[in-house]
Design brief:
Blueprint (H helix, E strand, L loop, with lengths): L4 H43 L3 E4 L7 H7 L1 H4 L2 E5 L32 E3 L19 E3 L19 E3 L19 E5 L2 E4 L7
Parallel strand pairs: 2-3, 3-4, 4-5, 5-6
Antiparallel strand pairs: 1-2, 6-7
Length: 196
């Protein structure tokens, strides 16, 4: 007995619905996991006395924002771990903060600006995952090796004043860096400094 055409359509429609539903569930799971990691990173930043700024690119109804949270809809693009430093105010002297480990920031893949001046950070390996990073401030840190930064192809501004960095050769391939601060005299523009 031949299958009726409308039954074949129904069978095809159910299969298509299941495929679409599966794709949606995978996307939703990925989005929820990304939001959870970002929320945990922001909580850690605030616990250690830092601050985080969101991009606010996506809007959502207030009731939905209350239930799902800001991290579901928006990305963190700026983080400061320097004590007594907010995105709008800069004190003359910032206290040294006890932050040493940056691994909690690994989930902030949309991060564009990271301020670490005055921290006890020495290992930049977790920063290597932050491929959207455009500005990195390491003034007065314990950093001595900048080789983890070699993959940060969007990095345009790098502050290395009062660090332990002696070898700048890992920065040779970073053509995107337009401003590199090495001393208190002020920034060097690309072309004004040679990396050996």
């Amino acid at each position: 007995m031949a299958t009726k055409p409308h039954l074949r359509f129904v069978r095809f429609s159910v299969r298509t619905l299941l495929i679409v539903l599966t794709i949606f569930c995978v996307w939703l799971g990925w989005t929820v996991e990304r939001a959870r990691k970002q929320r945990e990173a922001v909580e850690w930043v605030r616990e250690v006395g830092g601050w985080a700024s969101y991009d606010y690119k996506r809007r959502a109804p207030k009731w939905l924002m209350r239930h799902l949270g800001i991290d579901f809809f928006n990305d963190v693009t700026r983080v400061g771990l320097t004590e007594n430093l907010s995105p709008t105010a800069r004190p003359l002297v910032a206290d040294v903060t006890p932050v040493k480990d940056l691994s909690p920031l690994a989930g902030l893949t949309s991060l564009k600006v990271l301020l670490l001046q005055g921290t006890q950070v020495s290992d930049l390996t977790p920063v290597a995952r932050l491929t959207n990073l455009e500005e990195l401030f390491l003034h007065r840190t314990q950093v001595s090796d900048v080789s983890p930064l070699t993959g940060l192809t969007r990095l345009t501004k790098l502050d290395l004043r009062s660090t332990r960095v002696r070898d700048l050769s890992p920065l040779n391939g970073l053509e995107s860096v337009k401003e590199l601060q090495l001393s208190e005299r002020g920034p060097s523009k690309r072309g004004e400094f040679r990396v050996f």
